[in-house]
Amino acid sequence: VLERPRMKNLRHLGSLLASAAATCIFGVAIYSATQAHTGRTSPPGYDDTPVLPGQKWRVHDIKRPHPPVVTPGTESSQARPGRPPSDAIVLFDGRNLGNWLAHGKGKDKNKAVAPGWKVEKGYMQVVGGTGALFSKQKFGDCQLHVEWAAPPRIEGSGQWRGNSGVLLMDRYEIQVLDSYDNPTYADGQAGAIYGQWPPLVNASRKPGEWQTFDIVFEAPRFEGDKLVKPAFATVFQNGVLLHHRQQIIGRMAHKVVGTYAPHAPEEPLGLQDHDTPVRYRNIWVRRVKGYDQQ
Ligand code: MG
């Protein structure tokens, strides 16, 4: 009876030794594996592999050009906008409207005039009735980042609550609206391809909070007066997918079906003046080129 605890201890010691040995062997195994993994190399490419269908390149083609290097940007917070990627064209960095013009009204109709929107505290704000803005630079296929905030003080409802819009090529509208607990027709809420497609979901933040649109836009193609390829848009609001390469029916229109009319391959980026004090900050664009271009 007295021997039993000692036996138990001995058995315990045995299993301890066994596990120590196992740990040791395991450790040596990891160590040698690590040693074996250092200095491994792979060929920089191949010239004897099959040619990819529809491409002029082979699988892992050694001659295929390397894509340009881009330093990624940083995320935005409510307090401050993030940094754009290194190859972005910055259209608004919070300081001034030097990259923008406005569509004139009244006697200045069809003329470009100086923007009447105000710039303060790192954002621009719509001054109702002064006219929509459009960028001096023109764009076709592009990746676009826009940050916006609906007015913190709620005035009006439906389409009269924080209405503005991102006008791709100055005519295809991704709706900006305060859609936080503010019902309106689905194809007119925030992120809608206005009058055509509602967003897949409502990913709206509260009025006054900064929101992001990340848009990948494919410009329409015309041959003479004929549309040969419509426009497409992929849209994320606050990182949430709203449209997945959705075909655009035509230019923005209210209460009618928008249609296409021929225009240049590149047009300005527009921001709508819908007479509500929407704010914008951190607007940048990257031109989207094809594969294998440097
Ligand atoms: Mg609008």
What does this entry look like structurally?
The chain has one helix spanning 3-37; strands spanning 89-92, 100-103, 112-113, 118-120, 123-125, 133-139, 142-149, 164-168, 172-176, 211-218, 221-223, 226-229, 232-237, 240-247, 267-271, 279-287. The chain is 12% helix and 29% strand. The protein is α+β, with helices and mostly antiparallel strands and 294 residues long. The N and C termini lie far apart (84 Å). It contains one helix and 16 strands. Strands 1, 4, 5, 7, 10, 13, 14 and 16 form an eight-stranded antiparallel sheet that branches. A six-stranded antiparallel sheet has the order 3-2-6-15-8-9, with no helix packed on it. Strands 11-12 form a two-stranded antiparallel sheet. Magnesium ion binds next to strand 8 and strand 9.
The ligands bound in this entry are: magnesium ion
Taken in chain order, the helices and strands follow as: HEEEEEEEEEEEEEEEE
Share of residues in strands: 25-35%
Number of helices: 1
Number of strands: 16
Globally, the shape reads globular
- Main sheet record: 8 strands, antiparallel
